[in-house]
């Protein structure tokens, strides 16, 4: 599979190898890019640069979207996908929600700790499914909601046991007031709301415009987000302070460049995954990424993974495996599919896989 091939994937007419290769590339791309992105986000927002902390949430949104605008613009120019008939202003909706979700999670770190932020991300799958019902009239079986809850609980157990979770501290370990903590929690709740809207609205655009390229989506979303965040910086008089901080701290430059690259590549894989497999598969991938992010954090900062943490891991992956099994068993509508899945040979593969899952 060519990572830069934005032609739509027709699962029903593609071979098993093509579909699984595409899914594997999407999953690997999502995990790698967002693991790097998460490590750098924590570094820039929770660790000092020569004794000074970077505190401009909208500034980080703007710099991130500026990098995404330049990189996605270059991709759009080089690969020149066919034009789409999608109306430009409709890209503003996911752009605003994407910008606000980023701002909410960055700003929340002023009031709660980084592990608390990660804990709230555990429950993404449920609001995404609810938003899918609202925006797309999608119907999910009851067990989908139960699985989403178990995934959230499993990652929460893992997070709490692995990280020193203290709701009363901010990201740099300073004690927060009750009011500040409540403010941080509310910001994270809004983050979940905006983030779930973004993915489902992008899926809606892809469904309504099959000719829409991920490069076009990426470029338009980054363009609107960059403009909106720049206007906000000017309006709040933060622009000069942002430029001064970045100029005065040269060791931050490489972090910003890699952060923007990881974010842009991650957006590419987000669009490719949503377009090919839907936002629920994407959400499952990103929940897995949360587990790996905490594992990486534990490795870097020396946190111990306790027995309850292993129980949390088991809960998450058991729930994901159970959901996949139920989907493949229910009405012949698997989460992923390929040409010839209903023939005897393909069913034998699934039966063998199910038997191993049942062991």
UniProtKB/TrEMBL annotation:
<feature type="transmembrane region" description="Helical">
    <location>
        <begin position="280"/>
        <end position="301"/>
    </location>
</feature>
<dbReference type="Pfam" id="PF08449">
    <property type="entry name" value="UAA"/>
</dbReference>
<feature type="transmembrane region" description="Helical">
    <location>
        <begin position="20"/>
        <end position="40"/>
    </location>
</feature>
<dbReference type="GO" id="GO:0046964">
    <property type="term" value="F:3'-phosphoadenosine 5'-phosphosulfate transmembrane transporter activity"/>
</dbReference>
<feature type="transmembrane region" description="Helical">
    <location>
        <begin position="61"/>
        <end position="80"/>
    </location>
</feature>
<keyword id="KW-0813">Transport</keyword>
<dbReference type="InterPro" id="IPR013657">
    <property type="entry name" value="SCL35B1-4/HUT1"/>
</dbReference>
<dbReference type="GO" id="GO:0005789">
    <property type="term" value="C:endoplasmic reticulum membrane"/>
</dbReference>
<feature type="transmembrane region" description="Helical">
    <location>
        <begin position="215"/>
        <end position="234"/>
    </location>
</feature>
<keyword id="KW-0472">Membrane</keyword>
<dbReference type="InterPro" id="IPR037185">
    <property type="entry name" value="EmrE-like"/>
</dbReference>
<feature type="transmembrane region" description="Helical">
    <location>
        <begin position="254"/>
        <end position="271"/>
    </location>
</feature>
<dbReference type="GO" id="GO:0000139">
    <property type="term" value="C:Golgi membrane"/>
</dbReference>
<protein>
    <recommendedName>
        <fullName>UAA transporter</fullName>
    </recommendedName>
</protein>
<feature type="transmembrane region" description="Helical">
    <location>
        <begin position="143"/>
        <end position="160"/>
    </location>
</feature>
<feature type="transmembrane region" description="Helical">
    <location>
        <begin position="307"/>
        <end position="324"/>
    </location>
</feature>
<keyword id="KW-0812">Transmembrane</keyword>
<keyword id="KW-1133">Transmembrane helix</keyword>
<feature type="transmembrane region" description="Helical">
    <location>
        <begin position="172"/>
        <end position="194"/>
    </location>
</feature>
């Amino acid at each position: 599979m060519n990572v830069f091939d934005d032609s739509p994937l027709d699962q029903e007419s593609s071979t098993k190898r093509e579909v699984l290769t595409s899914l594997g590339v999407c999953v690997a791309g999502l995990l790698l890019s967002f693991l790097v992105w998460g490590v750098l986000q924590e570094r820039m927002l929770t660790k000092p640069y020569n004794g000074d902390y970077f505190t401009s949430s909208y500034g980080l949104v703007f710099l991130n979207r500026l990098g995404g605008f330049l990189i996605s613009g270059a991709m759009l120019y080089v690969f020149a996908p066919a034009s789409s008939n999608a109306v430009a202003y409709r890209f503003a909706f996911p752009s605003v929600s994407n910008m606000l979700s980023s701002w909410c999670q960055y700003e929340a770190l002023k009031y709660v700790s980084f592990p608390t932020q990660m804990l709230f991300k555990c429950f993404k799958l449920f609001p995404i499914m609810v938003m899918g019902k609202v925006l797309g009239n999608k119907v999910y079986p009851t067990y989908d909601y139960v699985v989403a809850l178990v995934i959230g609980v499993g990652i929460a157990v893992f997070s709490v046991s692995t990280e020193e979770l203290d709701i009363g501290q901010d990201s740099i370990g300073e004690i927060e007031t009750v009011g500040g903590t409540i403010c941080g929690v509310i910001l994270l709740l809004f983050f979940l709301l905006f983030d779930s809207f973004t993915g489902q609205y992008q899926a809606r655009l892809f469904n309504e415009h099959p000719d829409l390229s991920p490069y076009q989506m990426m470029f338009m979303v980054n363009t609107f987000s960059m403009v909106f965040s720049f206007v906000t910086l000017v309006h709040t008089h933060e622009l000069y302070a942002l430029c001064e901080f970045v100029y005065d701290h040269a060791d931050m430059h490489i972090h910003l460049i890699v952060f923007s690259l990881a974010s842009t590549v991650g957006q590419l894989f987000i669009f490719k995954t949503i377009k090919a497999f839907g936002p629920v598969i994407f959400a499952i991938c990103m929940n897995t990424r949360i587990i790996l992010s905490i594992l990486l954090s534990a490795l870097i900062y020396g946190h111990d993974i306790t027995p309850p943490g292993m129980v949390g891991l088991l809960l998450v992956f058991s729930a994901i495996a159970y959901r996949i099994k139920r989907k493949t068993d229910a009405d012949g509508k698997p989460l992923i599919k390929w040409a010839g899945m209903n023939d005897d040979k393909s069913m034998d593969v699934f039966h063998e896989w199910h038997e191993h899952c049942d062991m």
